[in-house]
Design brief:
Radius of gyration of chain A: 23 Å
CATH topology of the largest domain in chain A: MetI-like fold
Largest sheet of chain B: 6 strands, mixed
Shape of chain B: elongated
Strand content of chain A: under 5%
CATH class of the largest domain in chain A: Mainly Alpha
CATH architecture of the largest domain in chain B: 3-Layer(aba) Sandwich
Structural class of chain A: mainly alpha
Shape of chain A: globular
Order of helices and strands of chain B: EEEHEEEHHHEHEHEEHHEEEEEEEEEE
Helix content of chain B: 10-25%
Strand order of the largest sheet of chain B: 6-7-8-3-9-10
CATH superfamily of the largest domain in chain A: MetI-like
Strand content of chain B: 35-45%
Distance between the termini of chain A: 26 Å
Structural class of chain B: alpha+beta
Bound molecules: adenosine-5'-triphosphate, magnesium ion
Number of domains of chain B: 2
CATH architecture of the largest domain in chain A: Orthogonal Bundle
Number of domains of chain A: 2
Oligomer: heterodimer
Radius of gyration of chain B: 25 Å
């Protein structure tokens, strides 16, 4: 039955030139990254001339005080933003899947995902203006603004995997727990939370990677001296470009790949259950 | 069997949705279920069986009416405050817990002492013969084993009433037969009231102390399997359970416990007293195995022509065209070569056993 349907449907893979186009697309996507990673190991300081293999630029980046400070700030912001956004996203996901259907549910769903649709630059300008007003009024200028901004745009990314996980979950499990004398709170603690845990972890990791990677909003919101790794790199590239940038980029890429792989493993675990 | 009432359902109705989408899932249902009883709700898909169970468990609340447990009103209580447990059709075992943890869940939630929980888990594992699999995860055991874990989990807190929603429907024929016997044994050993849902009439008849036949959100008849089968009160009940012939007849006399009917053929037969007041033309039901064929056309209760002969091993079904065009089926056991000489096209008489005629309400 399945097989028959497959042979009858339109298959894009049978179109003439499909393999060539596919290969071209992959090349466009990955060739620059391969070049970037390759030249991060260049012994010389040119971005175009290969002068032999070396760890030199990684060492240089590691020794660079500014890089260290920016990297630390990136991690501090990403950890906080992913933590707060995951907590909020978890509550939002529970509120949109674990209640009786109510009016305006779709509207709320859309609103939670709004940051995915609004151009980032618009959010950035809005936050800049908003925070400027608050800074004026309170005279407080800490890291809090950056953390708040990151938390806000990370929420939908954390929300999506958690919601997907909750929707996959058999609702009769919670009914069964209630039938077996679990009060709503204990039902949540003993059944809902353990089962949604992989979704929460996946959401947190996605939020972490998204926060780590952000340039536009950070650039607008940050106070002087509050450079994250991406904004530091942006600043450097305006001046002189050395393979040090390649090395930092490659390190960031490695972190992202590790996070995404972990997320993939977690979601695999989920589908096996 | 005790005679105290366990669950009393009193004029319960349940509506879902409103306006154009209004569904009346239960329509003024009243029934009393006795303690230690194996009570079955039987009916076609969508007749409201699950809804009635969910109301008793507390997952839904009645739109009107009352539900009492041992004389106490429970319709306002949440599920976790009712001493009633459910075996779900999908089993709903907790995938992040072992077999033993699943079974102990209810007791843990009741904050029973650890020692007692461990003892009960062991007893339950023994009861459902699953001692070897106690530390398995529930997704690593077979469907029949999951079914037994679900049963043990629901029995462990020793509820007053156990609700079972088509627990056997996902099992294959052989396993189902085995589980039917096991369920009866468990009910007997634990002395807990079982309310069992099925749409399999054979299952209902073999397992139950009493059966309630439902249709369209209403309970049509409650009685022992024998009563339901032999004395169906309504056409739907007679039709839903087993094969039945329907005829119309003239009610001549209606006396104390007995009535006299005139069949379309002009012959008269006796029957029990009708369940409800009826007069004039009545509908009657006759089971195929409670009639027999005869060559004696003159004295037979009905006359017709054999239209079809269906041989099915232990018995043979004769389809007979009656003069007023209704078809009548007679099922006769095959004993040796006694009745192999009746063939399609042949004129034949039908005799109806005494007590076989059942007058229907509609
Ligand atoms: N939550 C609900 N919302 C709306 N209608 C419902 C809901 N639950 C049940 N119904 C309707 O109520 C009626 C009875 O449903 P119920 O599930 O009790 O049937 P059932 O006898 O258990 O059937 P089955 O044998 O198929 O399980 C059906 O018409 C069903 O569509
Ligand atoms: Mg049902």
């Amino acid at each position: 039955m399945n097989k028959m349907r497959r042979t009858n449907t339109f298959s894009v893979r049978k179109l003439p030139g499909f393999p060539a186009i596919a290969i071209l697309c992959f090349a466009m996507l990955y060739a620059p990254i391969v070049v970037l990673v390759g030249y991060s190991f260049n012994a010389g300081s040119s971005l175009a001339l290969w002068e032999g293999f070396s760890w030199h630029w990684y060492y240089a980046a590691w020794q660079n005080d500014q890089v260290q400070t920016a990297a630390l700030l990136s991690v501090v912001v990403a950890v906080q933003a992913s933590l707060y956004s995951t907590i909020l996203a978890t509550m939002a996901a529970l509120g949109t899947t674990r209640t009786r259907p109510y009016r305006g549910q779709t509207a709320i769903y859309t609103m939670i995902n709004q940051p995915l649709m609004v151009p980032e630059i618009v959010t950035a300008v809005a936050l800049l203006i908003c925070f400027a007003v608050i800074k004026q009024a309170t005279d407080y200028r800490g890291l809090i603004y950056l953390v708040l901004a990151h938390t806000a745009f990370c929420i939908p990314f954390a929300y999506l995997p958690i919601r997907a996980r909750l929707e996959d979950m058999d609702k009769s499990l919670e009914t069964a727990a209630a039938d077996l004398y679990a009060t709503p709170w204990r039902c949540f603690k003993k059944v809902t939370l353990p089962l949604m845990w992989p979704g929460i972890l996946a959401g947190a990791m996605l939020a972490f990677v998204i926060s780590l990677d952000d340039v536009v909003i950070t650039e607008f919101v940050k106070a002087p001296g509050q450079d994250t790794l991406p904004t530091y790199m942006l600043g450097q590239i305006r001046r002189a470009v050395t393979p040090e940038m390649n090395a930092i980029s490659t390190a960031l890429l490695a972190v992202s790949i590790i996070m995404v792989s972990l997320m993939f493993i977690l979601s695999r675990k989920k589908s096996r259950e | 069997m005790g005679n105290t009432t366990s669950i009393a359902i009193n004029q319960v109705s349940k509506k879902f949705g409103h306006g154009k989408n209004l569904v009346l899932a239960l329509d003024d249902v009243s029934v009393e279920i006795e303690e230690n009883e194996f009570f079955t709700l039987l009916g076609p898909s969508g007749c409201g069986k699950t809804t009635l169970l969910r109301l008793i468990a507390g997952f839904e609340h009645p739109s009107s009416g009352h539900i009492q447990l041992h004389g106490e009103e429970i319709s306002h209580l949440p599920p976790f405050k009712r001493p009633v447990n459910t075996v779900f059709q999908s089993y709903a075992l907790f995938p992040h817990m072992t077999v033993a943890e699943n079974i102990g869940f209810g007791l843990t939630m009741q904050d029973k002492p650890t020692g007692e929980i461990a003892d009960t888990i062991n007893k339950m594992l023994q009861l459902v013969q699953m001692e070897d699999l106690r530390d398995r995860r529930t997704d690593q055991i077979s469907g029949g084993q999951q079914q037994r874990v679900a049963l043990a989990r629901a029995l462990a807190p020793r509820p007053r009433v156990l609700l079972l929603d088509e627990p056997l429907s996902a099992l294959d024929y052989k396993l189902r037969k085995g589980m039917q016997i096991e369920l009866k044994r468990l009910q007997h050993e634990t002395g807990i009231t079982f309310i069992f849902v099925t749409h399999d009439q054979e299952e209902a008849l073999t397992m139950s102390d009493r059966v309630a036949v439902m249709n369209n959100g209403r309970i049509l008849q409650v009685g022992s399997p024998h009563q339901i089968y032999n004395h169906p009160a309504e056409r739907f009940v007679a039709d839903f359970i087993g094969d039945t012939n329907f005829l119309t007849a003239e009610l001549l006399e209606c006396g104390e416990g007995e009535s006299l009917l005139k069949l379309p053929s002009g012959k008269t037969v006796r029957s029990g007293q009708p369940e409800a007041a009826v007069n004039g033309t009545v509908h009657i039901a006759i089971r195929p195995e409670q009639a027999s064929l005869t060559d004696d056309l003159i004295d037979a209760d009905l006359q017709g022509k054999i239209s079809n002969v269906v041989y099915s091993g232990s018995d043979t079904q004769y389809h007979i065209d009656l003069p007023d065009s209704e078809e009548f089926v007679v099922r006769m056991q095959n004993r040796g070569t006694l009745n192999v000489n009746w063939q399609a096209g042949q004129k034949i008489g039908v005799n109806i056993e005494s007590g076989a005629v059942q007058i229907l309400r509609n």
